[in-house]
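Entry for magnesium ion complex. Fields follow.
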Amino acid sequence: MKVGVVIAAAGSGRRMGGERNKILLPLEGRPMIAASLELFDSLEEVSEIVVVTRKEDLQKIEEIVEATVKNTPVQVVLGGETRQKSVYCGLQAFNSEPELALIHDGARPYIKGELVRQILQEAKKHGAAAVGVPVKDTIKQVQEGLVLKTLPREELWAVQTPQVFSYSLILKAHQQAESLGLQVTDDCSLLEKIGHPVRILPGDYENVKITTPEDLPAQALCLVGFGWDAHRLTENRSLILCGVEIPHNRGLLGHSDADVAVHALMDALLGALGRGDIGELFPDSDPRFKDISSLTLLSQVMELVQEEGLRINNIDLTILAERPKLAEYKESMRSNLASVLEIPKARINLKASTAEGMGFIGRGEGIAAQAGVILSSRR
Ligand code: MG
């Protein structure tokens, strides 16, 4: 089977709210059109690809094509002022006459190879086939703001691309439309006009056409925060780090349990949230926080994270202490944090370091901690 592919990429993208062609908008780190180019390039049935674009985008599309299409003869040609005219230009540009012509919208980046293979088989048998999906909404015919009638939903399909035709058939349909001055919005309609049946193959709801900005996948929101804290070591206090009581001859001094690691982590979370610092949230003048477990405070900060519809992507926490050695407590510390924050332990990295005898940490006068966190939106 010899298949020529026409990719329609001449739209101006006005509905995307800008003059930039929407097929050049980035999707998963590359221009949207690259996804379809890569797919058709990978199919051995495809003997040739023609991308139809407008003059303003010609150079950019040529660069994308060159970077993406590796196996298949490909050319970029200029289209006409309507989609119909552009597709016709593309159909006439094939270097060698294919058996089937496949027409695809450059703004449908989610097309899958398996569906393309099915539609090719269907078109080979019947001469004309398109993918479509049954509509989910009730469709009404409306005139001047008033419902004229409700259309029978069970008969309504939203037709997508690819649409595949016998090459001679679709060429003839375009020639005829041209001479009669017919204007349609897809190629199946031309076949309907000349009375040739078009098979509809159940497609994929994911194969959407990116038409307005809402069609683009929601960009994940990422917020980064950093925290730092230090507390003095003193006698007659327990040493609590990440909620674990660690045997040592001294402990950290503070209004709460002085869990310096959790304090740094809370400040990182508040930093990402843009909510100031723990001093503002839990002032040490407030008797409610006297000797309180910092893990309790951490769960309150976590509630703020959840209220914002955010989740913790990952945490990186470093404790700076000359003594005691912390290695054997790291697992219990991570478990405590994971359970309070309700995230997998694997998302929490804990490091212990010394200051090689330098400064207040090195002299054993205190312990410091620093934390980095990334919050992301739940979507
Ligand atoms: Mg503190």
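NOTE: Residues 113-126 form the longest helix (14 residues).
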